[in-house]
Design a protein that fits this description.
- There is one protein chain.
- Helix content is 20%, strand content 15%.
- It contains four helices and five strands; from the N terminus they run ββββαβααα.
- Strands 2-1-4-3-5 form a five-stranded parallel sheet.
Length: 161
């Protein structure tokens, strides 16, 4: 049994679920989905929000719940305002494998597909990453592109360290 609350994924109601990288996680107990703008019944006490621009995720966040916003970059920007009260945590530089092409907006250079961000956060926090990427079309490319980063142990020391 994990020592941390479930990861909450806030999905914008206009997100195309057939293209959503985290859709397969709906069946897993360690994930809870909220449909923006509605919140679920879970308390956000003890949660941090994955995003760009905050301190890097660290060992101090090991037992925190993660709130992850899922939507296009344009929609996610609006959604973040609702959760601005949560401490933001960034991830180390990682290369996305998700082929994004916006004809209207520039994607952030540090932007990842939601499933990629969750995978990296779980890896760093020493959480179980088994099967997280099983349904991700660009799984092999993502793992290959970031093999050096992912070879490092998690942030969490183990008894073997």
């Amino acid at each position: 049994m994990p020592n941390y609350p479930p990861t909450i994924i806030v999905v914008h109601r206009r997100e195309n679920r057939s293209k959503c990288s985290v859709e397969p996680l709906r069946e897993r107990d360690e994930f809870t989905f909220w449909n923006y703008p509605d919140d679920g019944p879970e308390s956000l006490a003890g949660y941090v929000r994955l995003g760009i621009g905050g301190p890097q995720l660290s060992e101090a966040d090991q037992n925190c719940g993660l709130l992850v916003i899922d939507g296009t970059w344009r929609l996610a920007e609006r959604m973040e305002k609702k959760y601005a009260h949560l401490p933001i945590r960034s991830l180390p530089r990682c290369q996305t494998a998700y082929p994004r092409v916006s004809k209207v907006f520039d994607d952030p250079a540090a932007g990842l597909a939601t499933i990629e961000a969750i995978y990296l956060a779980y890896h760093l926090l020493g959480r179980d990453t088994a099967s997280l990427l099983d349904h991700y079309r660009w799984r092999n490319e993502y793992l290959q592109n970031n093999s050096e980063l992912l070879q490092h142990k998690s942030l969490i020391p183990t008894s073997e360290d």
